[in-house]
Design brief:
By secondary structure, the chain is an all-alpha fold. About 70% of the residues lie in helices and about 0% in strands.
């Protein structure tokens, strides 16, 4: 009998705890400023009348913004913890880290459910935990708020869908829709990947109907006037995202969030069932235009929603990519060739120059985050895989 700490679930929990500790440490380091360590000032170091986190919570709970009023779970959860004596800032951090912790464990469980072995499932969880919009969730200008709970609930719904536990699937999906209404974008994909599509369709329709009923009864954020005002406010976002001052930031964040997952899934598409791949593409095709038209692209977490379907497969795709090269050592050995080494170094230099020249941040200081470094590292890895695949032409 193996020791308790060798059990797969224990390993997943320990990995989640380590990831949460890493995320918290990264945000609380005094070398940069972000949502969690800012205090009573704005991102550009101007004095503010109250702690930044407290002002964010107030903005989400006072009903002044219709969009925030439609997404109550995070605010309710923070309010519950404050009733037990936690300071609002501590409650906000606890809910965020706990949501991502649970989401990571669920990525692991889904990967196992899909047939991955323990090691690869842990890789999927790890890649979720260190993805840029999770690891750097509260660096400006990501402004993460509802996503930790939304991710946890959506992943729980997917696991219940795969297990065909319909009586639990319906309320969990309903609460995911309440957490953030963009969860609606995943509904077509849920039908595609369901083992029994008719039952999945029925259960999804029931959850959606309950959500619609809740919207009709909700006191704030759902009236025709409020929805119209919300849409009118967003009417100029597309022009802003592609304005001269922001187009580089828009493209930079889009690449930062999606480039590596897309590269791995497309390269190793044979490892992903067609229904899952089609579902991912459908959600991607719906979400990216919606973000560009109805949101600020610099809030890059918005681009990550389709990855809910990708994360359980990312570990499998990365393992397949490295396995075809003989592992990481085999990949690196390809660059003993001077030609390939020069190509990789040159590609990385070009990527770095372009990143620092065109990926200009508009709502934070460049030194207050690791976005550029993360982007360069991802694209360098993609370049390494692509260059290593090239065959020498005689």
């Amino acid at each position: 009998m193996r020791p308790w700490f060798h059990h797969p679930s224990v390993k997943s929990l320990l990995l989640g705890l380590c990831a949460a500790a890493l995320t918290l440490t990264l945000h609380l380091l005094p070398i940069w400023e972000n949502m969690l360590n800012r205090g009573a000032e704005t991102w550009d170091e101007q004095p503010a009348p109250r702690d930044y986190i407290e002002s964010v919570i107030a903005a989400h709970s006072d009903g002044s913004d219709p969009a925030f009023a439609r997404r109550p779970w995070t605010t309710w959860s923070i309010d519950l913890l404050t009733r037990f004596g936690l300071a609002p800032r501590s409650a906000f951090i606890t809910i965020g880290l706990l949501g991502f912790f649970i989401a990571g464990v669920l990525v692991f469980r889904i990967a196992l459910q899909l047939g991955a072995d323990e090691r690869i499932a842990l890789w999927s969880q790890a890649l979720f935990q260190v993805s840029p919009t999770v690891l750097m969730a509260w660096f400006d200008p990501l402004y993460t708020y509802d996503e930790p709970i939304q991710y946890a609930l959506l992943l729980a719904a997917i696991l219940l869908l795969l297990q065909q536990r319909w009586l639990l699937f319906v309320p969990v999906l309903f609460t995911a829709l309440m957490a953030r209404e963009t969860s609606l974008l995943l509904l077509p994909a849920l039908i595609l990947l369901a083992p029994r599509r008719r039952l999945a369709l029925l259960a999804t329709l029931v959850a959606t109907a309950v959500f619609a009923a809740w919207l009709a009864m909700a006191p704030h954020g759902t009236s025709a006037a409020e929805l119209g005002a919300d849409l009118a406010r967003r009417s100029g976002y597309l022009a802003v995202n592609f304005s001269a001052g922001r187009i580089g930031e828009t493209i930079g964040f889009l690449v930062l969030v999606l480039a590596l997952p897309l590269f791995l899934l497309i390269r190793q598409r044979i490892a992903v069932p067609p229904a899952w791949f089609r579902g991912f593409v459908v959600v991607l095709a719906l979400n990216v235009p919606l973000v560009l038209v109805g949101g600020y692209a610099r809030e890059a977490r918005l681009f990550a929603l389709p990855l809910i379907l990708a994360w359980p497969w990312i570990g499998i795709a990365l393992h397949s990519e490295l396995d075809r090269r003989g592992g990481l050592t085999g990949l690196l050995s390809a660059f003993r060739s001077p030609g390939k080494a020069v190509a990789l170094i040159g590609s990385t230099i070009i990527v770095a120059l372009c990143a620092y020249r065109f990926f200009i941040l508009t709502a934070t200081w460049q030194q207050d985050n690791l976005f550029h470094e993360y982007l360069i590292a991802q694209l360098a890895f993609i370049a390494a895989c692509a260059i290593a695949s090239r065959r020498r032409v005689a």
